Amino acid sequence: MAITTVCGNVPVEQATRNLFRVLSLVRPPPSLLIGQGASRPLLRPLETAIHFHGADGLGELDGVRNADGSPRYQQPALPRTLPTAQGVWNECLHRYPHELTLITLGPLTNLATALAREPSPIRKLRAVISMGGALAVPGNVTPAAEFNIFADPHAAQRVAQSGLPLTLVPLDVGTQVALTRDAIRRLTAETTDPSVSTSR
């Protein structure tokens, strides 16, 4: 139904470019509402993870070239303007109140901002599932902190205390699911279409 971006591993503008790049590879093209969210955490300066994920957040995908030197992955055209993350959520929740689940894969800045600015539509979420935190395993930024919570701890605190029906999927789960090079080779052995490979 909708995807929104937020600052985190990369600045939000790059996250939005990455989203459009990934969607350009999906067949058939999905019909989605897309919104751009927060460009900085609530209170602290933005700390990205480009040292780990590369400047583009996709492992320097921009540098991958064909044999003739041309870029293998083209930059898709972006709309001149995009709605805000909250604007997209409000539209979806107006159409489907108490039916939608929000899945967050990055810092909780967008959700915390929405709770502060215009909470009543957000209260119509059926559930929130958030990838973040580290419970019985070490963090991936500090010994105690996982990146999504570390990137905006004030947002995480606001969401945790909001009373929303929140399910946390911590690093404890992610560390048990490894996508190895062998697994990627098996997925892509029969096709060069990324949308087919990743749907298996």
Give a structural overview.
This protein has a single domain, classed as Ribonucleoside hydrolase-like (Inosine-uridine Nucleoside N-ribohydrolase, Chain A), CATH 3.90.245.10. The strands form two sheets. Strands 3-4-5 form a three-stranded parallel β-sheet. The protein has a two-stranded parallel ribbon with strand order 1-2. It has ten helices and five strands. It has 200 residues and is an alpha/beta fold. The model has no long low-confidence stretch (mean pLDDT 92).
Give keywords.
single chain, 200 residues, alpha/beta, Inosine-uridine Nucleoside N-ribohydrolase, Chain A
Concise overview:
This protein has helices at 12-24, 50-53, 85-95, 109-117, 119-122, 147-151, 153-160, 171-174, 181-188, 194-198; strands spanning 2-5, 33-36, 101-104, 127-131, 166-169. It contains ten helices and five strands; from the N terminus they run βαβααβααβααβααα.
